[in-house]
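Exam revision sheet. Question 4 asks you to relate a sequence to its structure. Input first:
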Amino acid sequence: MAKASLRLGCKVLELAQVCIREARLSVAPVIFSEPKPEPKMVRGKMELRERFPLATDDTLLEAGVENNAVLRAKISPAVITASKDCTARIWNAETGKCELVLEGHSDAVCSACISPDCRYVATSSEDASARLWYVDSGRCARVLLDHKEAVYSTAFSPDSKQVVTASEDGSAKIWVVKTGLCKLTLKGHNFAVLWAAFSPDGRSVTTTSSDGTLKIWNAKTGVCDRTLLGQKPVYLASFATDGSTFVTASGDSTAKICDLVTGDSKIVLQGHDALVLGASYAPSCPAEKDDG
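Answer key, structure tokens:
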């Protein structure tokens, strides 16, 4: 369990927030207090006394938690969904229970993602806005207003300090999470920008468009470094874990693996008979240890 230096006057919710950040969780865990005496051995097994779930609005003192008390967190993975019903929802993946409903958009929610530090959810909508929400409460933290038409996608930078949006208005924008202010506007596509994302090192942003191009931008200056021509439209691009290559999905029934530095296509994946709408790298498997 994550360690935290919390006073008895702190709320249980603050301890849950620490667990979220330290364990990279997306559902606030249930915090339990184990009463004294400590668990004892019964027939070779550890027997735990009844655990008491703590109310998140209580302080640790109000919850009856004593100094050096044993606190534990029940961890649950989460799933986030975006819907045409104008909401996004965070679900407990173990129970199927809806933990939070993110309400505020006035039109269909096109995408939803959780920041790497698990503090925020970013949503995009056909109402021409994007929003940042607090993961722990579901409260809207920032409304990102600068696009003129529908916003199709959002993605956080690896350090969670920035978010990039892609819009029907032909632009992508980089925003500062802390302030909600637009830092850079990436203009150059002739039609709608369908997707945008940061590279794993955070130095580049890649955008795809219905104009049949993919562009790689300097995330610090907003300058377009490279433009790749494809078949209309280029739906998305997904980075490899090491950031050296990315794979694109496009309207010519192929996917292409491209070099990030040069932008050149290294491998063309052919075999589909219709539009390729999605493509992504499988997670890298950890190297096996040599037992010898």
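Marking note for examiners. The chain has two domains: 12-74, 79-270.
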